[in-house]
């Protein structure tokens, strides 16, 4: 039942329909208008609420889930939180295999939301039995009646954004969007949103954001897996050491690579200048926009939508900790001119 006056049956009724917020200060020197799709307004504080709810409801429709069954996933945290939230409301058990790169805050949050969490080493290959992919696969085989969400290789991940994020952005910009800028992890957000938007207007340019240390940009250019691209980096949820089938590379026009350091500073700058307390990959996406402006990518009449995937509270022990920033050496390279520019 739907209630009036902002009264809801349960928290899941609040998934999606996130606001588009104009960026006024950070982009004042840039050509074009910039709007952020702020996914922290989802009840689980990230875009992953959309895929958790969509994929679980699709499994229900196909008769794969009954109350008390187990949902399994590999996750850097956000998807796990969203699955845990959906599981509580719908009466499922939630089991998560998490990378050791995830922040302690995220892991504690998942446990608080009732999930059983397995922490797996981050810097092993995907086919290593200790990797979170292999651990999840093994648990899926062991637990009877379990459903494995498998967000990197589940094309329903693309559909979730095709049916929600894409139409919302089209409606919110009244069809005037010219560019979409979004981080690519599983690739579900950028692929599904781009697919819907390009169906409405094929001229819309879609720019993916990738990390140095990830294989995604190179694969987009060559369609070849180049192991030499892979090395450890700090941003969680962006880029990959494998090619996810939840990324539809044909929907993406270009990729931009960003560094851990610049993305961290840009995330802090978003908070200081726009009053938006968002996560590390929001900083990465905005950093890509800065780099695109340096090469004069945008024109005066462009309407650029950038996706801010999650909330800043998940990074208190990382990019929003001065101690962590110093330990990474992220303050070392800031000279006075740069410091003034980023308004510390
Ligand atoms: N930002 C964050 C914080 C994420 O957790 C993810 C998902 N791994 C992304 C961006 C990328 O979204 P997608 O997986 O849809 O490409």
TrEMBL record:
Organism name: Gilvirhabdus luticola
Cofactor(s) required, per the database record: pyridoxal 5'-phosphate
The protein's name in its UniProt record: Pyridoxal-phosphate dependent enzyme
Highest rank taxon of the organism: Bacteria
Keyword Protein biosynthesis found: no
Listed Pfam families: PALP (PF00291)
PANTHER family cross-referenced by the UniProt entry: CYSTATHIONINE BETA-SYNTHASE
Keywords, in A-Z order: Pyridoxal phosphate
Keyword Transmembrane helix attached: no
Sequence ranges assigned to domain Tryptophan synthase beta chain-like PALP in this UniProt record: 12-310
Signal peptide: none
